[in-house]
Specification:
The structure holds two protein chains of two kinds. By secondary structure, chain A is an alpha/beta fold. Chain A is built from eight helices and 16 strands. Chain A has two domains: 165 residues, HUPs (Rossmann fold); 117 residues, TPP-binding domain (Rossmann fold). Helix content of chain A is 27%, strand content 27%. In chain A, strands 5-9-4-1-2-3-10 form a seven-stranded parallel β-sheet, sandwiched between helices. A five-stranded parallel β-sheet of chain A has the order 13-12-14-15-16. In chain A, helix 3 crosses helix 4 and helix 5 runs parallel beside helix 8. In chain B, helix 3 packs across helix 4. Classes of the chains: A alpha/beta, B alpha/beta.
């Protein structure tokens, strides 16, 4: 078997999710090649070559891939991938965008968002917003798969010495073009891969109050997230949303502040190792999944939390 | 311009999902069904385009059992002009759904196809992208804003890092994210009027598409339940537990 992993990156650095996807590929078993498609991606290719368990890194370096347009990536991956038994990528918004095009162009089914590998053709994935877990067998000769990164422990980022091969395949479908982007800038860790996440919900009352959480986050080296209710209320931007329709996180520590615990939210964070809930409503469903629950007014508890942390950190 | 909207009949999002005791699937007997929420957003966007004078006709299509006509009628009550029902009792997976929709696109020749980004039952997030690939169209997935500008459409997309805007040549496929719009409710007079709007029924065979699932579901289980932990009395105890018991700080 031979597996092609499509790297997730931002043209300058390799995203950790790629290491999680390589781990899923290892669980399937076989030679693992990594495709790095983007623009000026030399450093990304180098990083991918060092990842544990990678056989070969294929590089498609062209302006056509610089903004990860699904039409161009779909054409590229369908061509490069057709000799492989499995094509895998992270179930981030880039992978979700181009991967179904790959499957359609190869006339095969896609298995989305897998959380476990049972065998080379059988995979486990959540359905109904995580309220049911399906075991699915794929019968096509090429398995096209997106992987939920948080469900697999990443392979080591260092130690590998894969060969790097430049591809001269340029696919510019001419169907779409990049206009612009508004990316959130933050010095805090990336929400999807942070070891600690502190999230606020509707109980935060407004966007300014999220500064309280940011102070605690900076103390702990944490990322800041939010529930859908907080995003829909306009407190914070949508890229902070944790939940079935936002980001799926599984940090060592998840602190939910003023979050009631709607199913939607739980689906995005209930695989965290330790969950803390701070909420003044002791009946809030979040307490049913929390390892440590504190029934308190967050406007008193969060500043106290910050003070206590300063003593021990 | 003509806009095609695809809608899916799924379990109502308020219903608590229960896995069948024999692990063959989710119990849908006597359960309230409704239009997939992302599809409601797709219908609403099409209706708004028509209200702005951008869209001239809205065709709504659904694939599924006879009862899917309820969701088509809902879309007609919200402002769609006519419906197409592709009737089948078989399980239709994303690739077959995309092939069926491709056949409809070839017949109807819409300038814009709007779909929900995923259905809340199978959570696949595939059909729109597959349809775009099969028809050679560009795609604006996870849309939070759609602006038609002559022969192009600008789509602002919700991506992991924030927002990204792409320009697509028409015809194009758009899939909706949550914040694209807030769907309206159908008024009673419009529900009555919708009953008289045209609705064509056809079979997958009529469209020349064979339903042959490539994925077999071996079993469906309830997720492992997480045990509730303890309540702490105050912040000091919380920090102590995190440091000395859980050892996560």
């Amino acid at each position: 078997m031979s597996i092609l992993v499509i790297a997730e990156h931002d043209n300058s650095s390799l995203k950790q999710a790629t290491l999680n996807v390589v781990a899923a590929a290892k669980a399937i078993g076989g030679d693992i090649d990594v495709l790095v498609a983007g623009e000026n991606v030399g450093a990304v290719a180098e990083a991918a070559a060092k990842a544990e368990g990678v056989n070969k890194v294929l590089v498609a370096d062209n302006a056509a891939y610089g903004h990860f347009l699904g039409e161009n990536l779909g054409d590229l991956v369908a061509e490069v991938g057709k000799g492989y038994s499995h094509i895998l990528t992270s179930a981030g918004t880039t992978g979700k965008d181009f991967m179904p095009r790959v499957a359609a162009l190869l006339d095969v089914a896609q298995v989305s968002d897998i959380i476990r590998v049972e065998s080379d053709d059988t995979f486990v994935r959540p359905i109904y917003a995580g309220n049911a877990i399906a075991t699915v067998k794929a019968s096509d000769s090429i398995k096209v798969i997106t992987v939920r990164p948080t469900a697999f422990d990443p392979v080591a980022a260092e130690g590998g010495s894969a060969s790097v091969e430049q591809l001269d395949v340029v696919k510019d479908a001419g169907l779409s073009s990049f206009v612009g982007e508004e990316l959130a800038k933050s010095d805090r860790p990336d929400l999807a891969s942070a070891g600690i996440v502190i999230s606020g919900g509707r109980g935060m009352q407004n966007g300014d109050n999220f500064k309280m959480l940011e102070q605690v986050a900076d103390l702990m080296g944490a990322a800041v997230g939010a529930s859908r209710a907080a995003v829909d209320a306009g407190f914070v931007p949508n890229d902070m949303q944790v939940g079935q329709t936002g980001k799926i996180v599984a940090p060592q520590l998840y602190v939910a502040v003023g979050i009631s615990g709607a199913i939607q939210h739980l689906a995005g964070m209930s695989d965290s190792k330790v969950i803390v809930a701070i909420n003044k409503d002791e009946e809030a469903p979040i307490f049913q999944v929390a390892d440590y629950g504190l029934v308190a007014d967050l406007f008193e508890a969060v500043p106290q939390f910050e003070e206590e942390l300063k003593k021990v950190l | 311009m003509k806009v095609l909207v695809a809608v899916k009949r799924v379990i109502d999002y308020n219903v608590k999902v229960r896995v069948k005791p024999d692990n063959t699937g989710v119990d849908l007997a006597n359960v309230k069904m409704a239009m997939n929420p992302f599809c409601e957003i797709a219908v609403e966007e099409a209706v708004r385009l028509k209200e702005k004078g951008v869209a001239s006709e809205i065709v709504v299509v659904s694939i599924g059992p006879k009862a899917s006509q309820e969701q088509i009628r809902t879309a007609l009550a919200l402002g769609a002009d006519r419906g197409i029902h592709i009737e089948t009792d078989e399980e239709v997976q994303s690739l077959e759904a995309a092939k069926l929709l491709k056949a409809v696109v070839e017949k109807e020749e819409p300038k814009l196809v709007i779909l929900g980004k995923q259905s809340i039952d199978s959570d696949n997030n595939q059909t729109g992208q597959m349809l775009a690939a099969l028809t050679g169209m560009g795609q604006g997935t996870f849309a939070s804003e759609v602006v038609v500008d002559g022969e192009k459409v600008n789509v602002t997309r919700e991506v992991d890092g924030g927002l990204m805007t792409v320009a697509l040549n028409l015809p194009a496929v758009v899939t909706t994210d949550l914040r694209l719009n807030e769907p309206r409710y159908a008024s009673l007079p419009n529900i009555m009027k919708a009953k008289k709007k045209p609705l064509d029924a056809m079979s997958p065979a009529d469209l020349g598409v064979e339903i042959a699932p490539r994925l077999t579901t071996l079993k469906v289980e309830a997720p492992a339940a997480r045990q509730a932990g303890i309540k702490v009395a105050d912040v000091a105890e919380l920090v102590d537990k995190l440091k000395n018991e859980a050892k996560v700080i």
